[in-house]
């Protein structure tokens, strides 16, 4: 699988501009790209006090039809984030995997909320991955990366590639770089992280988008500037990494997953009800 990381800035609340930038990167993606990854909440911008629900959009918004059409034209999948409006349950920080075959195939709501968003959005209640074109992909969002349980749950679900839509800002760039590498090593799978760059919502974003192999090797990396980078994923390296010892097989703390009732390609962990505030 060939993946591309789009390290781009965003404009809070400007759906048209953010969509236009995403489409530009999709249209000029390399011919052999199978999956292109964008940052956290790229379409809508971040949740801010007084501007979370007003920026949020439904997964049924026409913008996703436009992105599906672009995925079909380029024959690639798209992972990107947005603030999601759910009339029944509120506002979420969400990411989707859009494929040429299915449109939105996988939909994930961020389960671990950063301090500044806990009063603005609702935490998600499950961790998800899906099989696409014979490979199993899991989704995470930004602060999720800082909890080893999140990636371990996805690896237990069979994820061969963990995709992180990221919105990491200064001064935390080294934290996410080191943790993404660690998550690849400890789960013996690939990790691909696309981070935001530029400024917005009162932050300076750190860039540093990267792809890590199961042995921790950095296959591709960007610095702080806007741009894209490409990496070829050889999934046989997952098996090679587990050849001498297999962390998933050797662990003694079990995790039990569930198959999705509507689509057997999707597997998930249902999380217990929790308060968004830290314990």
From TrEMBL:
Supply the InterPro entries for this chain. C-N_Hydrolase, C-N_Hydrolase_sf, RamA-like, UPF0012_CS
Give the matching Pfam families: CN_hydrolase
> Which domain of life, per UniProt?
Bacteria
Extract the GO molecular function terms from the UniProt entry. hydrolase activity
Instruction: Pinpoint the CN hydrolase domain residues.
Output: 1-235
PROSITE patterns annotated for this entry? CN_HYDROLASE, UPF0012
Q: Which family does it belong to?
A: Belongs to the carbon-nitrogen hydrolase superfamily. NIT1/NIT2 family.
Name this protein carries in UniProt: (R)-amidase
